[in-house]
Write a structure and sequence with these properties.
15% strand; alpha/beta; 2 domains; Carbamate kinase; four-stranded parallel beta sheet; globular; 8 strands
Length: 220
């Protein structure tokens, strides 16, 4: 949503698509798991009295809107892209089938996973961890609006310091709001590293892919 309070900023989707096209040109296979908080947050609606399952399904549909927007931006950047959803909606996207997703990657396409896991009570973070396992990914890159994991919220605490590396257990024990506990535990069990970095800074995605010390790495 960029600097707007709500919705989709085409400049942001175009910027992300351009970064994706640059790393695709280096031969990197990339899959994207996308959230929907810029349009609807299931947990927030649930806190205001809406049924949690209903709210979560509405949030999943919001992720599909974002996925289609990113797909359009990627294809304008010359990157063939496929959206796969955990909730079946054949008119707008393909249903998620693991082998089909792998085949798309093998053919040089970017795959965008939408609708989370298809189940309420599971976050987009958990969907990202799950899809990463299924795709046998090398790493999860969590793009956020801050440049890593801090000892406290840097927006609220000016004395907060950033970790260069941190273990899964430390994230869980210290209650750091990186990803939810289910996602962290899944990555820990499967020894999948996570890199948290600022997606808004131009060129950061490529720097992370190239192994530069950007953001915070979570590992065993």
């Amino acid at each position: 949503m960029g600097d707007a309070p709500y919705g989709i900023d085409p400049k942001v989707t175009s910027s992300i698509a351009k970064e994706i096209s640059e790393i695709k040109a280096d031969g990197v296979e990339i899959a994207v798991v996308i959230g929907g908080g810029n349009l609807f947050r299931g947990l927030a609606a649930s806190a205001k009295g809406m049924d949690r399952s209903t709210a979560d399904h509405m949030g999943m549909l919001a992720t599909v809107i974002n996925a289609l927007a990113l797909q359009d931006a990627c294809e304008h950047a010359g990157v063939p892209t496929r959206v796969l959803t955990a909730i079946e909606m054949r008119q707008v996207a393909e249903p998620f089938i693991r082998r089909r997703a792998v085949r798309h990657l093998e053919k040089g396409r970017v795959v965008v996973f939408a609708a989370g896991t298809g189940n309420p009570y599971f976050t987009t973070d958990t969907a990202a961890a799950l899809r990463a396992m299924e795709m046998r990914a090398d790493v999860i890159l969590k793009g956020t609006k801050v440049d890593g994991i801090y000892t406290a919220d840097p927006m609220l605490d000016p004395t907060a310091t950033r970790y260069d590396t941190i273990s899964y257990l430390q994230v869980l024990e210290r209650g750091l709001k990186v990803m939810d506990a289910t996602a962290i535990s899944l990555c820990m069990d499967n020894k999948l590293p996570i890199v948290v970095f600022n997606l808004r800074e131009k060129g950061n995605l490529r720097r992370v892919i190239m192994g530069e010390p950007v953001g915070t790495t979570v590992r065993a």
